[in-house]
Every structure is written in structure tokens, then in C-alpha cells.
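Incident log, structure service

09:12 report received: a user says their structure output differs between two submissions of the same chain.
09:20 pulled the input from the user's history:
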Amino acid sequence: VRCLTPWQLSEIPNGRKCGQCIIGIGIGLHFTPAVIEQVGSHFALIFFGALFTTLSSVIGVWLLRRTGEDRATAFFASMPGGSGEMVNLGARNGAVLSQVAAAQSLRVLAVVLCVPALFKFLLGDGVPLNHAGSVSWGWLALISPLGVAVALLWQRLRQPNPWLFGALLVAATVSLAGNLQIALPNGASQIGQWLIGSGLACHFNRAFFRRAPSFLGRTLLATALCMAIAGSAAWVLSVMTALDLRSLTLGMMPGGIAEMSLTAETLQLSVPLVTALQVMRLLFVLFLAEPLFRLWNANQE
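09:34 re-ran on a clean worker, output below:
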């Protein structure tokens, strides 16, 4: 609508936060003692898989530098750490913020649109993993306000992705402590997807695609290369460990945590494994991106 008509729809106030909170609770409820035991037994795989996909973003940095972007813009536009966090880091280091935000949003959009279609085309429907769980309104009535409270605290402490992580942390803790085996009611996840998707789409309009078509084209090329590398690495790890190839592939894709976990839930994959890989990669980027950039900058000077 924003690209094809003059009607520039704006984001629903706090809609993305609400969607992330719903999805955070939904993701957290997938965490059970049995699942955590499985994820914990493959911690080394998750660690090195996340590290490998983080390092593969060097391709994007190299490509953008080769075509004239400054160091800060090329670096923070290519890091798979989420739009908000990378814009903040870019602002502290002199990057062109509009291009950083554009590259981050476009990469997530490309991954979300392409990966499910590629899975369907290359792997078929696969074997659905068991996510059975009943709805317990009593537990949800306890978890939901606690999740909002922790999200507000996380936001006040200026931590990344507070509305997703706050709700996820509460839901996962309660689910693990009580071994609940419960789920969100039908339709809740779809509402969360709609709120997040509509919020993401509001970053795009005709001017967005006219402003820097060559920059966006290079961003898409770098994203495609990173996706190919992540897919290849996931295949190798799947052969070595016998873990589900689709879950590993999705976990290693350079998308956002909420979007990739949502896709895992929609495709009936291992949501905790996907989330663990995505969270580990985010931690690598948040803690290593700025020190590595400053080291690179100092060496160049």
C-alpha cells in the first residue's frame, strides 16, 4: 500500500512492542526441561554456528566498502544484529544512519520472504516437530503481566530487544520451573506476526527504494551470499549431529530473532534451537561489533 498508493500508513502505536511481547511469550512457552537438555547438549554447536554466521557478515562489509561506502556505514549496515541496536552503534561511530536502518530492515524482509518459500521448494513439508500444548488461562494471566513488567525494566536499563526478551525470559522461566507444556491460544501468534510484520512494512515506501537503489541492491546481494553460506554450514552441522536441517538453517539465517522464531513456529520447527542460535549470534554482535570496528578503524589509521 505504501509503495503503490499515496496512502502512507503509519505504524500502530506500540503495535510492534505488543507483537514482540506476544511472540516472546509464545517462544518462551516452547522451553521445557527436555528441550533445554537437548539444546544444552549441543551448546558447542550453537556457539560455533552463531560465531560462524556472525563472521560471514564480513562479506557484506567488503562488498559495501568496494563500492564506496565509508567504514562505519559498511560495517554496521552488514552486522546481523537488528535495526535498532545497529543504528545506535552506528550513531556512536559516525555511520550514515538512514542507510544502516535501510540495510537492516531490507535484510530481515528478504530473509523472512525467501526462507519459507525456499524450504517449501527444496525440502517439501518435512516432518513436523511436536509442539503440542494446551491453553491454560490461569498461567497466561500470570505470565503476561510479569512479561510486560520485565520488558519495561529491560527497556529502562537500555537493554536490546526488551519487549521480546523480557516476555521470553518470564515465559521460559515459568515454563521450565513448572514443566507446563502449555501454549498460546489459537490466533495469538498470528496477531503477533501481523503486528510485527505491519510495523516492519511501515519502513518502506517509494522514496525508500528510489533513494539508494545501488546500495539496496548490494545489500540484497550480500544477504543472498550470507544466506547461502549459512545454509551450507547448517547442512554440514546437520550431517555431523543428525539435528533437524530446517531448524539449523533457520537458526543460522541473518534475520531478526522474533521473525526467525515466528517462522520456526509457523513451519513447525524446533523453536528453542532456532531461538538459541539467533540469541547467541545477537550476543556476539552486540558485544564484539563495536570493539572490532574500533580496532579495524585504528589499524587503518
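09:41 both user submissions now match this output. Likely a transient worker issue. Closing.
09:42 reviewer note: The chain has one domain: 15-295. The CA atoms of residues 116 and 122 lie 10 Å apart.
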